[in-house]
Amino acid sequence: MIQELVLNIPFPSRINVDIDGIRQRTLAWLRACGLMKSDAAVKRYLDMDITGLGARWYPDATGEELDIAVLSVCIATFLDDQFDGVLANQTDEVAKVIQDLIRLMQPGDPVLHFPDSPLVQTYAAYFSRNRAGATPSWYTRHCLSWENYLKAMVVEVEHNRTTAVFENLEDFLVLRRETGFMRIAIDMLERTGHYELSPELLSIDTLQEMITLTCDIIDAANDIHSLRKEEIRNDTLHNIVACLQQLHHCSQTAALEITLQLIDNWSTRFQSLAQETPVLSQILHLSEKETRDLQLYITGLSTLMSGYYLWGRATKKYHEDNIIPPGQHGFTESYL
Fold this sequence. Notes:
The chain is mainly α and 336 residues long. The protein has a single domain, classed as Farnesyl Diphosphate Synthase, CATH 1.10.600. The chain is 68% helix and 0% strand. The chain has helices at residues 19-32, 39-48, 50-57, 63-84, 91-103, 118-132, 136-162, 169-179, 182-193, 199-202, 205-225, 227-232, 240-248, 252-275, 277-283, 288-314. Helix 9 packs across helix 16 (288-314) and helix 11 (205-225) runs antiparallel to helix 14 (252-275). The two termini are 34 Å apart. It is an enzyme of class 4 (lyase). Belongs to the terpene synthase family. This is Terpene synthase. Its cofactor is Mg(2+).
């Protein structure tokens, strides 16, 4: 089974002790927003164990910050599900949904294309909760991550419609880093950890490379785990294994080997950069608090990688007997 492949993601992993509580609270909130109206949808959601992924990503988070961080993963899953269904090739309709969601990030009463949509209303409630407890500087940056993620979805749907192919791996990775949701998940490390890195520190080349490596490792691992699902749904265009197979004119087995080697190289590079951070703190003359926050952030990046890996191997989301045929919604119903 492809989910059981051993990947070189050698970072420690823990799980939040409130996993059962967050699972119950998240389910209740999503249902109150009008999602998961059927028992079948609830079962599929629980089988995926999306809250388990959030509990591994943010093992020390508590309270409202934990709930918001896990909800962000859940609502992104619902959105992706809708675009994998009947909207898979409808660029104009997807663009309208994305416009609505971007408008909802800021306070006010925006004009929406789908004001009665349960999914749009869920995002409105989520952004209101997220904004309430955030610093303006963090929230502004976080909204940019959401906006890039959402706009990249439109590009992905347009690629699906035109069956465009990538000319090289870097072009693929540039788009995959945005559609993979990881920039949003990385932002949440600060929110859940009650700290905030300065723009100057975040812009340092070493840290930017570590962020990029984190995105690439998790996205590639996810592409391996979801490969069978995407083959069955005729949706392999944005999968790194399929991309490498096309670029190298090789077999899928060979492309998988290349992907495994890339993950190995990226993990080794991340570990090397992490070992340099004490020297980096000295060179930059960071304060004691800045040094502590930087270390928390880097530890958080490694926790995201290991947390995804363990969840990805166990979730039923990618089991072949759980895969929904092309053109159907994963949760059995439309939320738009």
